[in-house]
């Protein structure tokens, strides 16, 4: 007969227990990693600067002229924008 097979039900149950313990430890590591990521995301959101009330979008070039005024957080503002106070935004519109 094959001697490598478990010889008793008890041995099979002990083997099953070891497999399940290993699975549980792996699952706990996954949970800990996901908790770490969630905490990191939360810290990042808390550290993010506040959205400005208004933004001025500039044209191409180092000191490009203003081409648009947007509310802060507007998804239409392109890459070249700067947050400004309300009075600066109003002057840019004029």
Automatic annotation (TrEMBL):
Residues 36-59 are annotated as: Disordered. It holds the Pfam family DUF6233. Residues 36-46 have a biased composition (Basic and acidic residues). InterPro entries: DUF6233 (IPR046200). This is Uncharacterized protein. It comes from Streptomyces spiralis.
């Amino acid at each position: 007969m094959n001697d490598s097979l478990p010889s008793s039900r008890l041995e099979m149950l002990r083997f099953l227990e070891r497999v399940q313990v290993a699975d549980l430890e792996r699952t706990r590591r996954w949970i800990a990693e996901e908790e770490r990521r969630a905490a990191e995301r939360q810290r990042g959101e808390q550290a993010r600067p506040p959205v400005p009330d208004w933004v001025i979008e500039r044209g191409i070039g180092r000191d490009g002229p203003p081409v648009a005024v947007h509310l802060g957080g507007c998804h239409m503002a392109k890459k070249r924008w700067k947050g400004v106070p309300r009075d600066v935004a109003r002057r840019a519109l004029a």
